[in-house]
């Protein structure tokens, strides 16, 4: 039962974020909005690591893992999320979100 509630909570959170992104995109460009979002998220995550005393975990990662994480971030968060925000701005939440939520099908094919 906790898993189902967590999934519903995640769905509600994603819904609210899409609506809030759409509102924010009325006054800004998708690239600018994504840069602000990524910088804020990065600062919060690094601060959390520092608060719990696990910042050293970042320095102990193998170079290959850091490289793959960077490439993944550029493709997924940089390119993909910018396109997602552009679709929200151009198509609206009602059409963009159902289409973008088909990404697990592409994972299956990959």
Describe this structure in words.
It contains six helices and no strands. It has 110 residues and is mostly helical. α2 (30-51) packs across α4 (63-91) and α4 (63-91) packs antiparallel against α5 (93-100). The protein has helices at residues 2-24, 30-51, 56-59, 63-91, 93-100, 103-109. 85% of the residues lie in helices and 0% in strands.
Task: Please describe the topology of this protein.
Blueprint lengths: L1 H23 L5 H22 L4 H4 L3 H29 L1 H8 L2 H7 L1
Identify the notable features of this structure and list them briefly.
110 residues; mainly alpha; 0% strand; 6 helices
Could you provide a short overview of the structure?
The chain has helices spanning 2-24, 30-51, 56-59, 63-91, 93-100, 103-109. With 110 residues, it is mainly α. It is globular, with a radius of gyration of 16 Å.
Q: Uncertain regions: pLDDT < 50 for 5+ in a row?
A: none
What shape does the CA trace take?
A: globular
Tally the helices. Answer: 6
Strand proportion: under 5%
Order of helices and strands: HHHHHH
Number of beta strands: 0
- Overall pLDDT confidence: 91
Please compute the radius of gyration using only Cα atoms.
16 Å
Oligomer: single chain
| Separation, N- and C-terminal Cα atoms | 32 Å
* Helix/strand structural class: mainly alpha
Largest sheet: none
Helix fraction by DSSP (H/I, runs of at least 4): over 70%
């Amino acid at each position: 039962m906790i898993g189902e509630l967590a999934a519903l909570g995640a769905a509600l959170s994603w819904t609210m974020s899409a609506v809030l992104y759409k509102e924010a995109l009325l006054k800004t460009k998708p690239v600018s909005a994504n840069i602000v979002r990524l910088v804020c998220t990065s600062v919060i995550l690094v601060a959390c690591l520092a608060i719990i005393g696990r910042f050293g975990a970042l320095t102990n990662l193998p170079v290959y893992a850091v490289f793959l994480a960077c490439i993944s971030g550029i493709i997924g968060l940089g390119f993909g999320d910018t396109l997602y925000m552009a679709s929200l701005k151009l198509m609206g939440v009602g059409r963009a979100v159902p289409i973008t939520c088909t990404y697990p099908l592409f994972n299956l094919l990959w």
